[in-house]
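Bumping with the actual sequence this time:
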Amino acid sequence: MNTRDSALAPLRHRPFRYLALGRAATMLGNAVAPIALAFAVLDLTGSVRDLGLVVGARSLTNVLFLLFGGVLADRLPRQAVMVVSCTLAAATQGAVAALVLTGTATIPALIALGAVNGVVTAFAWPAAAALVPQTVPAPLLQSANAVNRLGTNAAMIGGASLGGVLVAGVGPGWGLLVDAATFALAGLAFARVRVERVTPRSTERANPFRELREGWTEFVARSWVWVVVLGFLLINFAYASSVNVLGPAVADDTIGRPAWGLVLAAQTAGMVLGALVALRIRVRRLLLLGVLCMLADVPLLLGLAWAPSVAGLVVAGFVAGMAVEQFSVAWETSMQQNIPADRLARVYSYDALGSFMAIPLGQMAIGPVAMAIGNQVTLLVAAGVVLVAVLGMLANPGVRRLSAESPTIAEPPAAADTSAAADPSTGVGMPDPADGPVPGAVPIPAPRSNVDERPVGAGRAADTV
């Protein structure tokens, strides 16, 4: 079988096709929504403070309920959680669109609906992340993750463009209505994902707080998991704030706004190409490769600090985009191969909380820091933080030794409803039990469920409902 056939093999499985469609649709909506919502609030009051309150309400409830979203996704059929979440997301965004289109929107109403949408997202993301390995045979996990990343990146590009066109052409209310429609479409797609439950109906569950403790135990049981999440807490704190806050400021003083847009476009193009590369690359130390690739964030920050030229920043942005996709696919595959299926969503919720909560904190802190010590020094410090974070992750034996060819939990059966049987010949090869446990990882007992799957995790961005 040639490389192209192997890379696209996940699409032969009907549950995965519907899952990929649903996730791409949600990302399309997520790319349209920020543009439409921002201009809707600015048209309403013209206040950046009000916009911050509306966006902040969603972020706050998302953080508060994320861990419980992981509990729910491990208790219930994950596709059902996604259907309900998409339905509620469509309803809340539809209500926002109706208020804006009828001229009856108020800031308190938008804050309330944003808060509800944040809760919906909190319950949806762990379920979506943990659903992937239930839809394809284990040998196809890496390819499936890469296909998912490719679809969501393409949707992000298209959604951002569509959002701008809708806001400029027909107004932000219609953009929000399109956003609601994408979630309705995603709900229909998720409803067609037919897979076995992770946990049998007869399994007796503990109270939610005990289940959170179980998830925490799984999270800290493998040093490579919490080390990577801690590393990305630092990377997200430094990198996201530097690029999103200081980047435009530096561009205004040097290369100009159109050129900065070109840099961001190059980064996005790199992410798309990176997903294509991840479809085909096969290495034994996949997580090690992914972590090493994150060193590519440093040149972009150094370029902004020392020599902000259009050509240099475009190249650095493109390479950084390619690199983050290698890590994203490596991380998702590693999590799916090594975390018990019935606790996977909870581990993902801790992963998301640790990896992404640093982004708003960094964005709030970097402005005052830059005012105190200057943009250049701040960017150099940020580059140093990223470098230290990557080196810290590489210092962990589990990160260096984790093998993509010998996962520490058993192979799952094929999904309940696929258009192609689970055949080792369609993938990259079945793990050999003779390889033994992964060096540096804690042996994992067999999960309590009758299905053993695994999911999607740390990084700079996540597709959410």
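The tokens above came from a reply further down the thread. The radius of gyration is 21 Å.
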